[in-house]
Write a structure and sequence with these properties.
The complex is a heterotetramer of chains A (182), B (188), C (367) and D (302). By secondary structure, chain A is α/β, with parallel strands linked by helices. Chain A contains seven helices and five strands, in the order αβαββαβαβααα. With 302 residues, chain D is mainly alpha-helical. Chain D has one domain. The radius of gyration of chain D is 19 Å and the shape is globular.
């Protein structure tokens, strides 16, 4: 009876509703986008009224907000952080440079396409995206969560080889990434 | 300012050989010196003449000449004068003397020179890596390192950037539209 | 013998770090015995990219060097190009530049208020000041179209003239902010716990300061009156009347006091500039950027930012592109050698506060 | 048989009420903090959503047995203390398990939770957790002493070690807050530390230690900690009301009284940066300890 389809649906609905209204963002300013996060969290834009708040460690966070370009050095850390986060987890790419490299398209040290390395649920474009855009991005994420479509984590598990292979291509064989055992 | 500069030039010339100076408008004075006397001249400037602030150490890669030009910029709060000490070293075999016992922060600059240009600094004690991690191949700030080719080879590019050289032209081409009048006003 | 020290990593993912960098601490009990910074998480290779862009294209990269305060970088680049080329800047543009620079300083001070207090656990302050900072960003938005990246001060002047009634808006905002700064004083500088936490912590004395090439509020916090705006005046700073505050304490508290006064001085300068603003053109038009070459030569210009002196060395080989652009950030000296030395002997509870106080800004180090 | 069923039901009701009230208070504190900080703030029920979300998160971390047991210790301690403390003056709806000497037992059980947590945090291997735990324990040493002194003073003054007796005393003599003011002052100052709001929040100071002892705990662990924290908060607040404010006759009165007390650490926390550990201990061993001594002297003289 508990595992019957309808009750599963209802349980999912309630779970998704809670997840939607409680989004904990990992405090990791990976790039210059970190400058628009404090205004988003403070008085004028106040993301906390939507249930968005910061989390100090990856274990407690739901959302990894990639604020801007990722250098190869940061990429390794970001992926480790992502793998430490607990399901369900979401990734938001913030800024043009996560989408197509932005103005760093010919830089030797930044990645150009974030979704080759991490399953991105929502992209927010702009350089720099305004706090309104950030809030709109969170709104979109909430919508996806409510519809049950924000399943980037599942994608990461399914295509783990693909993501790891892409990472390996950049960082070479010198840097040891620990195994991802979820 | 004129007197200060003349005084400085005479003092430097009296103490060191092979120094050529170049004067500029404003509070700037250049000295071209040999590489080996860099620590002595900087110590002299700092201790005897009051140029206590090392403002910058920069390096320019003159690929055509096969040389690096290293620029030390020191500043005196009393004279209000920027002094450039310039020296040239060979791109492949040049070795730079270490000056981090004169100014501690020079250590950081030298680490960067070593990593970004591959310049050997004599007697530098610091960690191997500074900004890059596991970097192999040509030091990236050398002019013969082609960053675009490296990026094309290493990273993926999302398609669709090729025609983004001028957004306005791309828009016209795509949608066959004219630039609206209000936008024309702001386009220079 | 058993190793008593343990290693603690602060960063790169850490709520207390002032950007994307890492400090590796060796601690014994709560005391730090060795600190090593590791940077490079933000290295985007700006200086390499600028060699591939022409003189105007590389200007747009310029303001991305350091996010908390973008206008000093634009000012640096504009002035370096003008120095190499010998291009004149209209008088009105100079005044507008000073106004924009001081607004940027003020915005950055507001961010510092938040960071410094957040690092000590007084989150209310950060909420207030970062919230109020939006009013300055609104002004920027009206003037330039962008909140963070303005690309407004460019070679030859400024991009466009002030909008109608802009001066009044600036003055109104300044009145409001001045009132708010008094509120901040009540919360922060009259706070006994804040005083206890910051006095005698993170000491940078005169000898260390000179040895390390320390600049800005950290230098003024140990009693040396040094400010690029007075020592090596640019634009119209030599015509303005303002004070460069100094303190003797050499600790976080002294630096906080210096910054507190400087924020007020910024407001004073903005009022003066608006009062003295002449009329006339604002832009000495540059030639077609695709064909714009600069004569062979080099220049080193400096600007006083909130963290201190920021310098830019630009070299031109007479071609379309810059030969070399090299930025010396204030944080470049503060965040590596100085931080490593200052942290030794401090409590781990104070690491974040010291970093905020020294003004470590990783994007500026790594570029 | 009937009475056993009644007891079990009462226990469940007590725990649920404690959980709801504690969570609501925390939500309200977030709301009030937000208003002080010039913003709208989350709805007051935000904490329930957060808790539910945490409970529904998957957990795939394993650091050993003690890591799992740590939050359970906390939970056990909170529930024990909330069961021993009388919620209302007449125990009709909220039967409690109080007995002679329960004040002394309370003193122990209130320390038990943090100790269990310390064991759990130690096993995670995260240096932040370990440092946070050391700080937490040393800070506890700081505020426990004035707190114990205040309680001992009360016990000496009224010659009882039973909470119910103390409450009965207040029915006749009026609030102990006025008849033994020094004990009250010492206890309130110790409470500032107990609630771990600023300036005594160095245990989990985000800018220094990520989030201290709970760094490695997410999902269900954090949910357990959060709910046990709110139950414990309710227990402590009720204890203060019982000890010093004459208890409460009905739930409304209880809520008003507890919230009033809850406002003290909350409002103080909003305008204070945090003390370092040794500064915090020095603070507790200053005025609070002095008041504790005065309370003892007062108890001995009267």
């Amino acid at each position: 009876m508990i595992n019957d389809k309808n009750s599963q649906k209802i349980a999912d609905f309630i779970k998704n509703w809670a997840r939607k209204h409680s989004i904990w963002v990992l405090a990791y300013g990976t790039g210059c986008g970190a400058i628009e996060i404090p205004p988003t969290m403070t008085s004028r834009y106040d993301a906390e009224r939507l249930g968005v708040r910061g989390a100090a460690t990856p274990r407690q966070a739901d959302v990894l907000l990639i604020t801007g370009y990722l250098t190869t050095k940061t990429l390794k850390r970001v992926i480790r952080v992502y793998e430490q986060m607990q399901d369900p987890k979401y990734v938001i790419g913030f800024g043009s440079c996560t989408i197509n490299g932005g103005m760093y398209y010919d830089s030797y040290n930044t990645i150009k396409v974030l979704d080759k390395y991490l399953p991105v649920d929502v992209y927010i474009n702009g350089c720099m995206p305004r706090p309104e855009a950030v809030l709109a991005g969170f709104g979109k994420l909430q919508q996806l969560i409510a519809e049950g479509k924000a399943n980037g984590a599942q994608k990461y598990k399914d295509d783990h080889e693909y993501y790891r292979g892409n990472l390996r291509k950049i960082i070479g064989n010198k840097y040891e990434m620990p195994l991802y055992n979820w | 300012m004129k007197e200060i500069k003349a005084d400085l030039i005479s003092k430097i010339k009296a103490s060191f050989d092979n120094v050529t100076e170049k004067d500029y408008d404003g509070n700037r004075l250049d000295f071209h010196v040999e590489t080996r006397i860099i620590p002595q001249i900087l110590t002299y400037l700092k201790v005897n003449l009051g140029y206590i602030h090392l403002s910058h150490i920069s390096c320019v890669d003159w690929l055509e000449d096969g040389e690096f030009e290293i620029v030390y910029i020191v500043w005196s709060p009393e004279d209000k004068l920027k002094v450039f000490i310039k020296t040239r070293i060979d791109r492949e075999t040049g070795v730079l003397p270490n000056i981090d016992m004169i100014w501690r922060q020079a250590n950081t600059y030298e680490r960067e020179l070593k990593e970004m240009f591959g310049i050997e600094v004599d007697g530098l004690v610091a960690a191997d890596e500074f900004l890059l991690e596991d970097w192999e191949g040509l030091p990236p700030m050398r002019r013969d390192f082609d960053t675009e080719a490296y990026a094309d080879e290493t990273f993926w590019h999302r398609p669709g950037r090729e025609d983004a050289m001028d957004v306005r032209e791309a828009i016209i081409e795509r949608s066959r539209e004219e630039i609206p009048d209000f936008a024309k006003k702001y386009s220079r | 013998m058993r190793e008593k020290a343990t290693t603690l990593y602060i960063g790169p993912q850490h709520p207390g770090i002032t950007g994307n960098m890492m400090v590796r601490l060796k601690i014994e009990g709560d005391t730090i015995v060795k600190a090593t910074t590791e940077v490079g998480y933000l290295h985007r290779a700006f200086e390499k990219l600028q060699e591939k862009r022409n003189w105007l294209q590389s200007f747009t990269l310029m303001c991305r060097f350091c996010v908390p305060e973008t206008d000093p970088m634009e000012e640096l680049y504009a002035r370096a190009v003008e120095t190499i080329e010998g291009r004149e800047v209209p008088e009105r543009a100079k005044y507008i530049r000073v106004m924009v620079l001081e607004l940027a300083r003020l915005a950055s001070f507001m961010l510092w208020y938040g960071g410094q207090n957040g690092s000590l656990g007084l989150y209310t302050m950060g909420q207030w000041s970062v919230g109020d900072r939006n009013y300055i960003l609104d002004l920027f938005e009206e003037l330039t179209g962008g909140r963070v990246y303005h690309m407004y001060i460019w070679p030859g002047g400024v991009r466009r003239d002030l909008p109608k009634g802009f001066e009044q808006k600036v003055l109104k905002t300044m009145d409001y902010l001045e009132k708010r700064l008094d509120d901040y004083d009540d919360l922060m500088f009259d706070n006994a716990i804040f005083k206890k936490r910051t006095k005698g912590v993170g000491i940078v004395d005169k000898e260390t300061a000179i040895e390390h090439g320390v600049v800005g509020p950290v230098l003024r916090g140990c009693g040396i009156r040094s400010d690029i705006r007075i020592d090596d005046p640019y634009e119209v700073y030599d015509k303005l009347d303002f004070i460069v505050p100094t303190q003797e304490g050499a600790d976080i508290w002294a630096r906080a006091l210096v910054r507190r006064q400087e924020a007020r001085q910024s407001i004073r300068i903005i009022r003066q500039v608006i009062d003295m603003m002449p009329g006339g053109p604002v832009y000495n038009k540059i030639p077609n950027p695709q064909k714009w070459t600069l004569p062979k030569g080099d220049a080193y210009v400096r600007v006083e930012s909130v963290r201190g002196e920021v310098g830019l060395y630009a070299a031109s080989d007479g071609g379309l592109n810059p030969r070399r652009i090299h930025v010396r950030g204030a944080a470049y000296v503060h965040a590596i050698t100085l931080l490593e030395d200052v942290l030794v002997g401090e409590n781990i509870a104070d690491v974040s506060a010291i970093m905020n106080s020294l003004g470590t800004c990783p994007p500026e180090i790594e570029r | 048989m009937e009475s056993v069923g009644y007891y079990i039901l009462g226990v469940i009701v007590t725990i649920i009420v404690a959980f709801m009230v504690g969570m609501t208070y925390m939500g309200l504190s977030r709301k009030i903090t937000a208003r002080v900080q010039n913003r709208k703030g989350p709805p007051f029920y935000q904490n329930f959503i957060d808790a539910f979300k945490l409970a529904s998160k998957e957990t795939a971390i394993h650091h050993g047995f003690m890591h799992h047991a740590g939050p359970a210790f906390l939970m056990v301690a909170s529930i024990m203390s909330v069961l021993i403390i009388p919620v209302l003056n007449d125990g009709k709806w909220f039967p409690n398990l109080n007995f002679d000497g329960d004040l002394i037992f309370l003193l122990y059980i209130m320390v038990f939770g943090p100790l269990g947590m310390a064991l759990g945090a130690g096993q995670t291997g995260n240096p932040n957790s370990a440092i946070g735990v050391t700080r937490g324990l040393s800070q506890m040493v700081g505020f426990e002493i004035p707190w114990v002194m205040a309680l001992v003073a009360l016990m000496m003054q009224y010659q009882t070690t039973s909470l119910v007796d103390l409450m009965a005393v207040q029915q006749t003599t009026g609030w102990l807050m006025f008849s033994s003011p020094f004990a009250f002052l010492a206890a309130v100052l110790a409470m500032l530390g107990m609630f771990r709001y600023s300036p005594f929040d160095i245990v989990g100071a985000p800018t220094e230690l990520a989030s201290g002892p709970v760094s490695e705990n997410g999902g269900k662990y954090l949910f357990t900690m959060m709910s046990s924290g709110s139950i414990f908060a309710f227990a402590k607040l009720t204890l203060y009301v019982d000890l010093f404010m004459g208890g409460a006759d009905n739930l409304i009165e209880l809520l008003i009284k507890t919230f009033t007390i809850y406002l003290i650490p909350m409002l103080y926390g909003m305008v204070s940066p945090r003390y370092r550990t040794e500064q915090a201990i020095r603070y507790f061993w200053g005025w609070p300890l002095f008041f504790g001594f005065l309370a003892l002297v007062h108890a001995m003289v009267f």
